[in-house]
Amino acid sequence: MNELDPRLHAIRPDIADARLGAAVGAARPVEGEVREVATPILSLHREPRFDSRIDTQALLGERARVFDTREGWAWLQLESDGYVGYAALDDLTPPGPGATHRVAVPSTFMFPARDIKAQPVITVTLNAKVAVLRADERFAHLANGRFVVARHLQPVGMFATDFVAVAEAYRHVPYLWGGKSVLGLDCSGLVQLSLQATGRACPRDTDMQEKAVGYALPTDDIENLRRGDLIFWEGHVGIMADPRMLLHANGYFMQVTLEPLADAVERIAARYGRITSIKRF
């Protein structure tokens, strides 16, 4: 087996995912237990400390395999994209009823009653998963007893058709390293979130996306780009909204911005280099 990527393979010097087989070496193999994200947004940290860097986030209803728990932390691997990290143990529960719907808008509220004037219980975001018991034209009644505006949900297996349109709804959302919601996201988070909303699998980090998605176009020809093309730099990615305009979450403006690609190319080249690849679906 090739060298294991600790972002995608649950392996530490002491324990490791038993599914890795002989690759675990001297580490003790652990089967792990499936848990479900019970909070609107669950941050995965690099170390079991709240001041440790956030590498990614998981959303309500996502499932993860927990390999170790200690002092209020769980070391886990997300089922959706395979990412490994540490998360707060209290925000994970045994799996509940199977999800029937996903949130199909950037964010919506869970209400305690069928009343939009009721005090919302929590805010949930795009691609969060919920179990609906019954619904009418106005509200969906969830298995947890709460209510969501029905038109903000779509059945599991039903997806948006234009991932760029999904991404465009996040314009002006603040930049957050490791973020993956309308409350804050990073460049690869925007790409992953938008593609997942259209039912396409997409890895989490920029280098993974550059290898896995689409097919390559010449990097020296930016005159024939199309809506939906992905532009990669070392450590950065953006989405072409049309042949000239780039949509991307970036640390320069500290938000999701739409700007001429030529401007972004000139600015980014000064610090990080030239475009490394262009990918098209």
Structure characterization notes:
The protein is mainly beta. It folds into 3 domains: 15-93, SH3 type barrels; 101-155, SH3 type barrels (Roll), CATH 2.30.30.40; 163-280, endopeptidase domain like (from Nostoc punctiforme) (endopeptidase fold (from Nostoc punctiforme), Alpha-Beta Complex), CATH 3.90.1720. It contains 4 helices and 25 strands. The protein has helices at residues 163-168, 187-197, 206-212, 261-271; strands spanning 15-17, 28-30, 33-37, 41-45, 54-59, 63-70, 73-78, 84-88, 92-93, 101-103, 107-110, 122-125, 129-130, 132-135, 139-142, 147-149, 153-155, 180-181, 184-185, 215-217, 230-233, 236-240, 245-250, 255-260, 277-280. The strands form 8 sheets. The chain has a 6-stranded antiparallel beta sheet. A 5-stranded antiparallel beta sheet has the order 8-7-6-3-9, with no helix packed on it. It has a 3-stranded antiparallel beta sheet with strand order 13-10-17, with no helix packed on it. The longest helix is centred in the last third of the chain and has 11 residues, at 187-197. The radius of gyration is 20 Å and the shape is globular. The two termini are 29 Å apart. The mean pLDDT is 96.
Q: Can you give keywords for this protein?
A:
281 residues; mainly beta; SH3 type barrels; endopeptidase fold (from Nostoc punctiforme); six-stranded antiparallel beta sheet; five-stranded antiparallel beta sheet; 25 strands; 12% helix; globular
Task: Report a brief summary of the structure.
12% of the residues lie in helices and 36% in strands. The protein is built from 4 helices and 25 strands.
